[in-house]
Amino acid sequence: MRTRVIAGVLIAVGFLALCGLDYRRGGFPWGISCLFVVGIWAGMREYLRLQNAGGAKLPVEFAAALAAALAVAVILEFWKARPLGPADMPIGEVLLLGIMVVFMCAEVIRGEPERFRDLAVLFFGFFYIWVLGTYSMKIRHLPAIGEAAFLWWIVASKGTDAMAYFTGKAIGKHKLIPKVSPGKTIEGSVGGLVLGCAMGLVVWKISPALQRELPLAWFIPVSLLVQVVGQFGDLVESLMKRSVAMKDSAKLLPGMGGVLDVIDCLLLSAPVAYTALVLAIKLRAHS
Questions:
Q1: Residue whose C-alpha is closest to residue 181's, from 229, 241, 129
Q2: Residue pair 135/271 in contact by the 8 Å Cβ criterion
Q3: Which residues of 213-227 are buried (b: 16+ CB within 10 A; e: fewer)?
Q4: What's the CA gap between 41 and 36, in Å, rounded?
Q5: Angle, helix 91-110 to helix 60-80, in steps of 10 degrees
Q6: CB-based contacts of 56: which residues, under 8 Å, 6+ apart?
């Protein structure tokens, strides 16, 4: 546990320092954007390695590089503040569609029907890592509240994840879903929700933009929804690792595993957080 705590603290300090650097410099958040690209590349690489450990035959480095290229395309569009693809379409979506068509045609020419399942696994990887991950940048670039909303989403999601772990270790007795993740408990899940919500409230309290756009009556249900989905994100990755008999996605971070083990709750909660924030703002404006 000590190694996990030290690694977690170092990651948190590094992330907050990067956010602070972007805030101090102003303008486009290049630090967070670079972290996003690296996270997409590393997450896709670990996902593919997990699938190959389960018997798939996927091009790990090539596909991870493609995912990183798609992530760069997303950043360029936010930087230019407009779609860069043909007919005003997002260039990342255009490239992903092109990649899918090329891969499917290539498999038909190869003529090995038994590889079709690998193709489906590969495409799911692009959806799971790149499509879901892209919503993190959509949160960061929300008008008026992007910076604060991004910080709240990270703090609430990872805070819930961390507090669920520590609460479960301290008082956990009843298993949550033992077939998926034997170590997670109901007590840990509830403790994570309560303490994660409290950490999110701290961000809300120090952010005039969030208070203005999301009064407390709207913010609390949005926060709880995002945290619940984030816990399911952790369980989804646990299910994935269990399906290939692996404990961690990698051994990159001492006591924590790999990058995918760190961002699992964020991947699932990002589109929910973005959608919930946009809907809450619009509903409040019309109420």
A1: 241
A2: yes
A3: bbeeebbeebbbbbb
A4: 9
A5: 160
A6: 48, 117, 118, 121
Q: CB–CB of 259/252 below 8 Å?
A: yes
- Which of the four pLDDT bands, split at 50, 70 and 90, describes residue 1? low
Q: What is the pLDDT of residue 287?
A: 67
pLDDT above 90 for 51: yes
On whether the CB atoms of residues 29 and 74 are closer than 8 A, the answer is no
Strand-pairing partners, residue 257, are 253
Residue ranges of domains in the chain = 2-286
Whole-angstrom Cα distance, residue 252 to residue 266? 18
pLDDT at 190 over 80: yes
**pTM for this entry:** 0.93
What's the mean pLDDT in 70-78?
A: 96
Per-residue pLDDT reduced to its tens digit, 205-258:
999 989 988 888 889 999 999 999 999 999 999 899 888 888 878 887 777 788
Extract the tokens encoding 38: 């690296």
**3-class secondary structure for the chain?**
CHHHHHHHHHHHHHHHHHHHHHHHHCCCCHHHHHHHHHHHHHHHHHHHHHHHHCCCCCCHHHHHHHHHHHHHHHHHHHHHCCCCCHHHCCHHHHHHHHHHHHHHHHHHHHCCHHHHHHHHHHHHHHHHHHHHHHHHHHHHCCCCCHHHHHHHHHHHHHHHHHHHHHHHHHHCCCECCCCCCCCCEHHHHHHHHHHHHHHHHHHHHCCHHHHHHCCHHHHHHHHHHHHHHHHHHHHHHHHHHHHCCCCCCCCCECCCECHHHHHHHHHHHHHHHHHHHHHHHHHHHHC
